Amino acid sequence: MITTQTTAAQPARLSGRDAELAAVAALSERVRSGRSGVLLVTGEPGLGRTALLDRAAAGFGAGTVLHTRAAPAERHLAHSGLHALLGGAPDPAPPADQAAVVRAPAAASSPVRAAEFPAGPAAAAESPADPAVAAASPAVPPPPVAPLDVPPADVLRTGLPPTGLLELLRRTGARGPLLVCVDDAHLWDPASRAALGFAARRADAVPSVGLLLSVAAHRAADPDFTGLPVLRLAPLAEHAMAALLDDLTGAADPLVREELLYAAEGNPALLTALVDRLSAAQLAGRAPLPRPLADGPVLTRVVGGRLAELPAATRDLLLLVAAAHEQHPDGPGADAALVLRAARAAGLDPAALDAAEAAGVARSDDNRVRIDDPLMRRAVRLGAPLSRRRAAHTLLAAVLDGDRHRLAHLSHRALAADGPDTRLADRLASAAAAPDVRARPLQRSLAFARSAELTATAAARAARLTAAAEYARLAGRPRRARELLAAAREGAAAHDALRGGVELVCGTLALRDGPVGDAHEALLLAAALLRHRDPEGARGARFGAMEAAWAAGDVPSCVAALGPDLPPAALGSDLPPAALGPDLPPAAPSSGDDDFRTGMLAALSGRFGEARGPLGRVLDRAGSDDDPVRLLRAGVAALVLGDIATACRVNARALAAARARDLASLVPQALEHLAYAELRSGRHARARAHAEEGLRAAHHAGQRNVAAHHHATLALVASIEGDAAALTAHTDAALATAGPHGLAQAAALAEWARARADLGRGLALDAAARLGPLVRPGHRRGHFAVRMLMVPCFVEAAVLAGEGGDGTATAVEEFALWADLGADPQAPAQLARCRALLAPPAEAEAFYTYALARHERAGGDVERARTLLLYGKWLRRRRRPREARGRLKDALYAFERAGAAVWAEQARAELRATGAAAARETPGPLASLTPQQLRIARCVAEGATNREVAQRLSISPRTVDHHLRNAFALLGVRSRVELARLVSREEEPNSVGPAT
């Protein structure tokens, strides 16, 4: 398509591509301003390369646009790409120096209407256009023009010299801005690709020309495109896919929306194809959805273009790869030796795989062969007829050693079966449950699910579906687990053990991603149903119910969940062992579990002395344990005992064990416990690193509750580091889930983070108001496990805000009782600091001195620095500036080491107030203010009234007014609004608050 734009078109909205659109807009702006540029857009099929180029072409209003898509059928025709690019306009009169560019005499060519060149069917499948892009084009196309002075017929016949395209672009750019858009440039013939790459790498030498090219992801590193700036398209985020779905459907049924978004996997073209497949009744939820939702024809339509061009033998070999890969969907790929043995058995030449590698469909590496794109892998498998899929599994089963690879051999046999087979189903279920079989949880889940399909009796089928659901949960596939549970419920209705197993898995899923109240009830029901049939399962359900009640802050429910003893052994079952479910937890009762239950029951009942013995034994056993579930419980025991160092060590071991067993569902939880323990130990940088990793793992595993706790941990880290944007983002995210799901602990931690950030910025009154309900008795009392941890912050905020009355003293006395229990190594030093804040001047110094001595024993640089800061403030107000400087400098350097920027600025401000120079003195106009004037100006800039400033700085409102008038005069401002703007402008890079 060749157009001259005179007015900007109204382009269609591209959801979730703000960064990519900004990059394209930057390229267009360079061209408009007389400069040049190039951008190579790459991505997997269906991610929107074509839509992005269409948007760029439609929105370029500064000059001429050349826009073409490659035609795969012409890739073997020399110079066909250049012919398509140059052939969209009438042939003009050639200039005098035409012969220097084109090696043959010009020949007349027929005018061509300004329209996009048609692409072949394979190109359409590989690069589907956005359905809304049609709206991006002008209603009436502008008249075609002739931007490049070369007859297309000559180009096709003789080509161009190496510098020919570059020279043509230079000439056209001299006439006005030119944007060249080439979609699927990798499908051009080699000569045209080489000319295009040559010109693109030298685009800087050509004014007013921009090149926007798109290639498939596997071709971005081709020599023709080496050295070009690359823009990679990733799958769309969930919110962007939801916005696109709204555009496509308007208002679909919520459950249907969820199914569509999950099946599309972030691919907008696939989402469009899925919506097109459904009827209005299906979209509205009035008719059942087809299964599978993304079937072979749909997948082939989106990503199957490359497959259609491959030889039949190559497609057969790819089917073997996909069938072998089916056993390890998340693994490194199929065993190349296995695939090649099966290929030879089928009479296929292994060299047939070369064509698939050349097309970017498959790749071989380290004795593995894999189809990287999951959608392509599904298209290969589901696009083949069922008979061919069964034949592929039969071949793979035949060449596998049934003794060495028992589970894989039986799985392939089962997938090749054409109907129920009781004997094969029993053997497969037995192998899936066998502890001596090395297999990942997802492979066991797939085996149990297939064995259920081959099982004739309803009860055994339900048991195997439940086992498949449990292993899917462990593999981090909660949606798949819920689908399997839904299928299991009907057959489990008549058996308490089976119903209990279903409720156990269901409750555990809800514990990580749902209202914890629902999880608590489901797990208690599971415990009751399993009490006589599966006592170990009942014990695990009780522990899960306690964890749910803990997250909700419900101590009585925690105690009730751990209450009555469970029977020592099962009473038997009417189902075979392989049908009862996965081999987790262990069949034998664990004395460690008994100690954990006894110790936690004592601690939650307020009998901490009785809790130390059993919980200590739990920690002793953890040193030689490698079970991640028991190690996580040991980490909880360590925190309850106040042994933070052991909690860090045990949780790190739990993380390693979960990774070693490929338990994707436990990795986010282990990272959560580890990050929280590191936060308690004062290792904020480590806590942030593990919480960020845990947040990614939790999102991948579909665990919103765990993600909320990671957000709360990151908010607490941000409250120390002074990152206001991160604090707001993480607290909002934590509370968005904590509220609906009843996560009282995550909500309390997020509010604590906000209050501590307020305190760091000098907003003591706000901090005290936030923390008051969380530490005082009453119906809005904070979470029992973290309430006492907040008391030191509350006392500091209340005293600095001038509200250190009876309520504060009561909180300190309660904190003293808790500190005596040894529940936190920092508590004795924090208690002494609280007493110093409340003590009369004659006694305060002794408490500060004692607090610093206890900090030396407990460690924790940030808490020690906060005590030093408060002590330094106290000394300065006692008119002892020399002693204050020493304490404040120690605090400053400790805060800087910890990355606590906002707290470090407080220490600097206090140092300035003593008359000492501090690093990073205030630059610009604010440097003319005295330290006291600067502190007052900062408070006023944050919106504080004179009375609030006086409370923060422990001075009178009259003194505030006096200093503020002088500051106005020195800075040349006439209002508080002008002052706020000036302070914000001068201190924006630091984003820190005043000292208190």
Secondary-structure blueprint of this entry?
Blueprint: E1 2-4, H1 18-32, E2 37-43, H2 49-59, E3 64-69, H3 80-86, H4 121-126, H5 152-158, H6 164-175, E4 178-183, H7 190-201, E5 209-216, E6 230-232, H8 238-249, H9 254-264, H10 268-277, H11 280-283, H12 296-303, H13 305-308, H14 312-325, E7 334-335, H15 336-345, H16 353-358, E8 363-365, E9 368-370, H17 374-382, H18 386-399, H19 406-416, H20 422-433, H21 441-453, H22 458-474, H23 478-492, H24 496-512, H25 516-530, H26 535-552, H27 555-562, H28 577-580, H29 591-604, H30 608-622, H31 628-641, H32 644-660, H33 667-680, H34 684-700, H35 704-721, H36 724-741, H37 744-760, H38 764-775, H39 787-800, H40 806-820, H41 827-838, H42 841-858, H43 861-877, H44 881-898, H45 901-913, H46 931-941, H47 946-953, H48 957-971, H49 976-987
Parallel strand pairs: 2-5, 2-6, 3-4, 4-5
Antiparallel strand pairs: 1-3, 7-9, 8-9
